[in-house]
Amino acid sequence: MNIKRITTIVPIGRLADLENCLRAVGVHGMTVDNVQGFGEHVNYFRSDLLRKNVQVQVFIGVDRCEKITEAIKRFAKDAHISAGILVVESIDRLIDLNTGQDIEATHL
Q: Which domains does the chain have, with CATH numbers?
């Protein structure tokens, strides 16, 4: 199918900047979820140690995956983000629920 899902988790205060970054490299849509968790950087001011973050997912054709991944990495470095992750996964099938048709990588 040649479609990738890029998922990144960043501090909630950086969402608008990440959105601008993704738009600048031609991403036409994204999904955002509020998430909480802890990893290397724990919030010691909370009793449960969790930090509030956002998880952003984009679906993209494999031919554009590296460009977008590099843009997110540059964004994180330039924004001095000290916590977060970036995941790239292969998608077997992506279906438009409005039409019931498979979405082709060329449309992403």
A: 3-107 (3.30.70.120)
